[in-house]
Amino acid sequence: MTRLSPETTVTAIAADLPGAAELFRRKGINFCCGGNIALSEAATRAGLLPDALLADLQALADAAGRNAPEQTPALIDHILSRYHETHRAELEWLIPLAQKVERVHGDHEDAPLGLTEALIALNDDLDSHMQKEEQVLFPLMLQGGNPMIVHPIAQMRHEHDDTARLLAGVEHAAHGLRLPEGACGSWTALYTGLRKFSEDLVTHMHLENNVLFAQFEPAHA
């Protein structure tokens, strides 16, 4: 996991720590297009004490993954059912809903123009990534792994970085998921669904990077 410190960038924390994005939204901290700044600077700009913000984030880090199964087979089953299947099901309705909102409200100053395109790019990336895990990496893990497994794991970690960048693009297109006053039901449902999807995806990648993959990699000093 990204090491938490006052100098860690807001973008890196939001992409890696479950719950951080929602915390930043509540605190008025921009973590997509304006997030490439140190946490301490972001806190100061938002009128917050850096140490207090860091403590809130540390509490999230301490809780992350606490409810996930520890044994590899059970953890893989959890990831497949709770995240892989859920992501696919949610994107199936989020993409057409985004198309509808862009079409109906395209002339609104806060319209999420480009959101559909960003979601389609994320969907394509994510589906390809999950298929590689389902067809190659997870079966290797269930067989006990082998010394060469570190290479597909490294590739999956790299792809997680790509996915995080695409997710930030979705957040940017949706203006930080801030609903305009008087937003219709469809717009509200879209942003509510995207907020849940985004948090799920960050949690999913965190579990793989910091819990599952770590079981098959050499211990770091």
Structure description:
The protein is mainly α and 221 residues long. The protein folds into two domains: 10-63, no CATH class; 72-216. Helix content is 68%, strand content 0%. It has eight helices and no strands.
* Overall form: globular
Total discrete domains: 2
Regions with pLDDT < 50 over 5+ consecutive residues?
none
Average pLDDT, rounded to a whole number, is 90
Computed structural class: mainly alpha
Rg from C-alpha positions?
A: 18 Å
β-strand amount: under 5%
| End-to-end C-alpha gap | 15 Å
List keywords for this structure.
mainly alpha; 221 residues; single chain; 0% strand; 8 helices
In a nutshell, what does this entry contain?
By secondary structure, the protein is mainly α.
Give the topology, please.
Layout: H1 10-16, H2 20-27, H3 39-45, H4 50-63, H5 72-105, H6 115-142, H7 150-173, H8 185-212
Helix pairs in contact: 3-4, 5-6, 5-8, 6-7, 7-8
